[in-house]
Specification:
globular, about 300 residues, seven-stranded mixed sheet, binds zinc ion, alpha/beta
Length: about 300
């Protein structure tokens, strides 16, 4: 048996020493390529590749949307782009500051890395702690990864890259500073993490679920033909919006009711998850996190209601 163990260790060593994301760009629309991550949580088995990144090959060069969870991912993305087109990378656009979307920036320091001012500020404040957490969760894949801040401040409106007019929208339901990009040539909507599809949404920086619900309505109104969520499969129908609206409304109501009944956090995280969300990955795990992020606000809101009631 020992030799088998030895053989196993020998065979698995090279893979551990040099983990490979094996990124394969998939064309989803004219000039438009997607690198679809898994809908799992960060793990040593996936190197943090739980995120969708994308690139658009314009006449002028390549526009990259989000850079992934690590330096290694950023480098792999750059290689994957080079296998797809001879055009140079000319621009990076970051949808928001979360680590799985921006820690590949190191591979793109030769081009403008654009983000909204709020995103840069959040990354300045939280980047180091988020990167540390990523090292803990995915280990070796992170080697050499450092936080690189955006080098260009984006403003909402239309920016043209070659023959692609990209409409940059400033929203805020997920982090307070969220960029969504509508490619007006193809109709592809890069929703960032305002849209999670078949994967439970995350709330560590959300200003509130009502803000997020308003963003979903605004996005759905745009003239899109395809939705690229930050996490989960692309869609050409309204299902991702419907799922987001259903899930956010449920989560909001759950916490309102809990606060009204005086439930504590321990009870809240054990709440039943409706059967219709069974296909959504990580719903229990993210319910626990969302309750810890957001429930104290609902409790405070309830206390205020009781307070003002007692004045009458
Ligand atoms: Zn995020």
């Amino acid at each position: 048996m020992r030799w088998m163990l030895l053989l196993f260790i020998t065979l698995s060593l090279p893979a551990l020493a040099d983990p490979d994301y094996a990124l394969k760009p998939r064309q989803i629309a004219e000039d438009t390529w997607l690198l679809e991550g898994s809908t799992d949580n960060f793990a040593k088995s996936n190197g943090g590749n739980i995120v969708n990144t994308a690139f658009i090959v314009t006449e002028k060069g390549v526009v990259v949307i989000d850079t992934g969870p690590s330096k290694r991912y950023g480098e792999a993305l750059r290689k994957a782009i080079a296998t797809t087109t001879d055009k140079p990378v000319i621009q990076v656009l970051l949808t928001h500051h979360h680590p799985d979307h921006v820690l590949g920036n190191q591979a793109f320091t030769d081009v403008p890395i654009g983000a909204f001012a709020g995103t840069t500020e959040l990354l300045r404040q939280q980047g180091e702690a988020m990167a540390e957490n990523m090292y803990r969760l995915v280990g070796d894949w992170m080697r050499g990864t450092e936080v690189v801040l955006p080098t260009q401040t984006l403003t909402p409106g239309v920016q043209s890259f070659g023959n692609h007019d990209l409409r940059l929208l400033s929203l805020g339901g997920h982090t307070g500073a969220d960029l969504t990009i509508l490619d007006q040539k193809t109709g592809v909507l890069f929703a960032g993490d305002l849209v999670f599809y078949q994967r439970a949404l995350t709330t560590p920086n959300s200003p509130g679920l009502s803000v997020w619900l308003a963003d979903i309505a605004a996005l759905q109104d745009l003239p899109w033909t395809m939705i690229v969520p930050g996490h989960g499969p692309v869609a050409t129908d309204t299902k991702p919006f419907e799922q987001m609206r259903d899930y956010l409304t449920w989560l909001d109501q759950l916490m309102r009711d809990g606060a009204a009944h005086g439930s504590d956090m321990a009870e809240m995280i054990r709440s039943p998850i409706p059967e219709r969300f069974a296909g959504i990955s990580l719903s229990r795990y993210e319910l626990i996190r969302s309750v810890s992020h957001l429930y104290p606000r609902y409790e405070r809101g309830q206390m205020r209601r009781v307070d003002s009631g007692s004045l009458n």
